[in-house]
Task: inverse folding
């Protein structure tokens, strides 16, 4: 690419049953200091939705939520592509969006990530300007309704200081060297394509798997603390269990990457820090509940890593991705099955 040439960015967002928050995300994207060329929405069809009425209903909802004629404001930038629910895949669906782009950079986001200011894209681009940077990902700030434990979780995983993650930093960062979140992450499109894009089928962790590929190829991943989105969740114990079961499945499925370092050691250190901080601030009951949640996380993760030995009905009880599991049932459940490598 020419030096000094304006870099272009396309945004890819998988969407399912979008609410007001998603349309606010679109509105904020169109107020960025660096505007995206295109916003590709990979829209998974829900019950009662069909391709024929998808766009019309989408823009009606956009106008209702934003209180403006959002269709006129966004239609030139936004393209909507329907996805059949049974065919949704964390890697394949995003990769399908990436294949529609000719931009210099791909910005992957989730529908519940809200840009904190109008410099999100600009600050991610600054991260990509570093030497041999293949991915630049954003800092996630807790939403206003986040509880103390969730606030501390965001602070632990997304500190205020930026950093480079390289193959060499595995020694000091451990599994965090592979850390990257497609909640909001920018990829060099040419490098992404050269490395084969996201793996699929995959139940989880398509971002960390891609980050590992980037590091292995001699490039770095940049955590851009100045690029900020609001994103947090208040999960129940069982929701934590299901998510971490899927995480364990993914780590087993791609064990050549994740067995290099211990994720349980990282998790234990994180849990200890949060519990001690909660106790120090006088949140005794919240500390007890968080410790209880951590038990559900650990149980889910360990079961997920042993999914191959579990009966199918039990896997279906444990996973949060039943459609994926059903899709994989006849090809060594959740095992790599000749997808994008």
Result:
């Amino acid at each position: 690419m020419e030096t000094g040439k304006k870099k272009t960015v396309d945004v890819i967002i998988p969407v399912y049953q979008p609410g007001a928050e998603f349309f606010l995300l679109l509105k904020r994207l169109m107020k960025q200091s660096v505007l995206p060329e295109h916003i590709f929405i990979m829209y998974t069809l829900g019950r009662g939705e069909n391709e024929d009425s998808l766009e019309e209903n989408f823009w009606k909802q956009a106008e209702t939520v934003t209180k403006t004629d959002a269709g006129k404001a966004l239609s030139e930038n936004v393209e909507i592509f329907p996805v059949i629910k049974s065919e949704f895949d964390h890697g394949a669906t995003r990769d399908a969006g990436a294949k529609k782009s000719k931009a210099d950079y791909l910005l992957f986001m989730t529908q519940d990530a809200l840009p904190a200011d109008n410099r999100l894209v600009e600050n991610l681009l600054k991260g990509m300007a570093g030497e041999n940077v293949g991915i630049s990902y954003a800092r996630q700030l807790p939403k206003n309704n986040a509880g103390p434990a969730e606030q501390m979780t965001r602070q632990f995983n997304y500190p205020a200081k930026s950093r480079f993650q390289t193959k060499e930093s595995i020694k000091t960062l451990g599994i965090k060297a592979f850390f990257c979140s497609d909640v909001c992450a920018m990829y060099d499109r040419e490098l992404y394509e050269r490395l084969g894009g996201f793996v699929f089928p995959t139940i989880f962790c398509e971002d960390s798997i891609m980050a590992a590929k980037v590091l292995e190829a001699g490039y770095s991943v940049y955590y851009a603390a100045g690029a900020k989105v609001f994103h947090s969740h208040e999960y129940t114990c069982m929701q934590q269990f299901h998510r971490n079961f899927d995480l364990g499945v993914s780590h087993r499925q791609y064990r050549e990457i994740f067995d290099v370092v211990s994720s349980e050691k990282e998790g234990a250190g994180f849990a200890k820090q949060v519990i001690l901080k909660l106790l120090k601030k006088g949140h005794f009951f919240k500390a007890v509940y968080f410790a209880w949640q951590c038990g559900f996380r650990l149980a889910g993760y360990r079961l997920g890593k042993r999914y191959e030995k579990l009966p199918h009905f039990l896997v279906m009880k444990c996973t949060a991705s039943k459609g994926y599991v059903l899709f994989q049932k006849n090809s060594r459940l959740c095992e790599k099955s000749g997808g994008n490598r």
